[in-house]
Write a structure and sequence with these properties.
Elements lengths: L3 H7 L2 H30 L5 H43 L3 H16 L3 E8 L4 E9 L14 H10 L3 E3 L12 H5 L4 E9 L2 E10 L11 H55 L2 H16 L12
Antiparallel strand pairs: 1-2, 1-5, 3-4, 4-5
Helix pairs in contact: 2-3, 3-4, 3-7, 4-7
């Protein structure tokens, strides 16, 4: 009985293409053998067109193989995008969301490191909120090296910026951060929410050039849209939680104040009774008789 899983695997596009390429190679060998036999036996030759057709078929198979590999990469990227988008949208912890966003972008692009800058509405400035490397670890402050100029160019234009070699890119000539840090492959994608830029995703590879291609941009734009929503949701949840904690603290303080006023009122009600005042007079008289009279106490009539 045929194993369904194995049957599926053997019918995968890459597997079928590999089989076809192998078959064409074998066919080419047989044609060469046939051509040699005809030449030796009958001093005849096969038509050159046969060899030409086989070469064209092999070339076409190689092109299909490359296109299939590219499609497989895109499918993987989309699957990863869907999985991570669901994950970050389901999370309401701001720090976890930011780290998941950066780890995903680094994984999808093949970058060595990445940074996420968000808009601080109070100061109207963009500050780094996450910095991660390929090992899914936070970068120490001394290792945070990137081009703020390129990041802000993506923010100002609200468009993604990609360069295969920032050193030779005429757009960034004169940028000190690029030349001093010897930056190579760079990509910056703005985060937009309701048409407003709320942040930017910046990834780079400081050693290798040509890491990022235009093909990845549509995927990252889709991801950036989801990430912006997730970040905003986490931010709102964090604010609601802070407001709730502050309200709980205010209720607790109010309850303490109410309890304190109740105790003070209860004490006044007790000390102002005739019975308590008689007890106080009796206590003073007893102290006087015992020789412990307090000069400050008034004499009883």
């Amino acid at each position: 009985m045929t194993d369904p899983k194995r049957a599926t695997e053997t019918n995968e596009p890459q597997t079928v293409i590999s089989r076809l390429a192998s078959t064409l190679s074998r066919l080419n060998e047989l044609i060469d053998q046939l051509s040699g036999w005809l030449q030796k036996t009958y001093q005849a030759q096969l038509s050159p067109e046969i060899h030409s057709l086989v070469r064209e078929m092999r070339r076409d198979v190689q092109i299909i193989k490359q296109l299939s590999a590219q499609d497989a990469v895109r499918i993987h990227q989309l699957e990863e995008l869907a999985r991570i988008s669901a994950l970050i949208i389901s999370s309401l912890e701001p720090e976890q969301v930011l780290e998941e966003v950066m780890d995903t972008v680094i994984h999808l692009t093949g970058a060595e490191r990445g940074y996420l800058m968000l808009l601080d509405e109070e100061t109207d400035t963009f500050t780094i909120r996450a910095s991660r490397n390929r090992g899914r670890r936070n970068l120490p402050e001394e290792d945070v090296i990137f081009s703020r100029g390129i990041a802000h160019a993506a923010i100002d234009s609200a468009e993604p910026i990609i360069t295969s070699n920032a050193q030779s890119d005429p757009r960034f000539q004169g940028m000190q951060s690029v030349s001093v840090n010897n930056l190579r492959s760079i990509m910056a994608v703005p985060l937009l929410l309701h048409g407003k830029v709320i942040g930017v995703l910046y990834v780079d590879n400081p050693i290798t050039q040509g890491v990022f291609t235009q093909e990845i941009v549509p995927v990252l734009l889709a991801f950036a849209s989801q990430a912006a929503i997730a970040i905003d949701n986490a931010k709102r949840f964090s604010q609601v939680r802070a407001d709730l904690q502050r309200a709980q603290q205010e209720v607790l303080e109010l309850r303490i104040q109410i309890d304190e006023r109740k105790r003070e009122q209860a004490v006044r009600e007790i000390t102002e009774t005739e019975y308590f005042q008689e007890l106080e007079i009796l206590a003073r008289n007893l102290r006087r008789k015992a020789g412990r009279t307090d000069p400050s106490e008034p004499a009883d009539a």
